[in-house]
Structure formats: structure tokens, C-alpha cells
Design a protein that fits this description.
By secondary structure, the chain is an alpha+beta fold. It has 3 helices and 4 strands. The radius of gyration is 22 Å and the shape is elongated.
């Protein structure tokens, strides 16, 4: 495995965590949204990660000699939470039904904040891994001088 392949693995992790963070921020922003274009309250969304083989243009020659390349990660799909919405009694609300109940998203913003912190730490870990690989590449170049 070449050092350039390791950069591809970290880059895939960064892209996946960025996508996850975008979904989490959207969830937090819509925690009180009672009406969407699709109808009904907002539904929480989550990213599903899968591993995938990474290729690097710099190491393509070496990867053909090996059985498999390094494995990274990507977002396979985005799923909606299927829990029933939360009912709140607010008779004057424009989205209230005949009984005065309004449907709100069934979500916990604190849980999404913790998940967002986890995504940020995962992103930072990939940045640190890329920095370590960059340092190894730089030291290799210095040794060859």
C-alpha cells in the first residue's frame, strides 16, 4: 500500500463525515418544523456508511499488483426516521388539526448535537491522519536528497 493510497482513505472519511454533519445540521435546524413541502412535519434523516475500495491515480500501478487496495468509506444512502411524530396541544397554531394538536418531528436535538460532535471528531481524526502521511512523504523525500 502506498502512502498516496492512505491519503485517499482519509479523504473518503472526511467526505463521509462532512455529509453526515450536513444531515445533522439540517436535523437540528428543522427540529421544530411542522410543515414540509412533502406534507406533515420534518422527518429526521441519517447517513448510512459503507466501506469501499479506494483507488489513487498515483498508486494505480501498485494496486494492480496487489489483490485489493485500501478500504475507505462513503455514504451509501440517507434514510428517514419512521417514528410517529410528536403531538402537542397548540390550538391557535396554523398547522393544528380539528382537535388543536400539532404534529412535531420526533427527534431530540441534544442527541443530534452529540452526533455532530462525533462527526467533527471523526473529520479531525482524518485530518490528523492526512497530516501524518504528509509528514511521512516529506521525510521520505528528505531522505532521498
Amino acid at each position: 500500500m502506498s502512502l498516496f493510497s492512505l491519503l485517499s482513505v482519509s479523504a473518503s472519511g472526511m467526505a463521509a463525515q462532512r455529509g453526515r454533519a450536513e444531515l445533522l445540521v439540517e436535523n437540528i435546524a428543522n427540529a421544530e418544523t411542522t410543515r414540509t413541502p412533502e406534507g406533515g412535519p420534518y422527518r429526521r434523516r441519517d447517513a448510512i456508511f459503507v466501506s469501499e475500495e479506494q483507488t489513487s491515480p498515483f498508486s494505480a500501478v501498485f494496486q494492480t499488483a496487489l489483490d485489493s487496495g485500501p478500504t475507505g468509506v462513503r455514504i451509501a444512502e440517507v434514510v428517514e426516521d419512521l417514528r410517529e411524530p410528536e403531538k402537542r396541544y397548540i390550538p391557535g397554531h396554523p398547522d393544528a388539526d380539528a382537535d388543536g394538536y400539532v404534529l412535531f418531528p420526533a427527534m431530540n436535538p441534544v442527541e443530534d448535537m452529540v452526533d455532530l460532535m462525533s462527526a467533527a471528531r471523526g473529520y479531525q481524526a482524518n485530518v490528523a491522519a492526512m497530516a501524518a502521511v504528509k509528514d511521512m512523504i516529506q521525510r521520505s523525500i528528505d531522505l532521498l536528497r
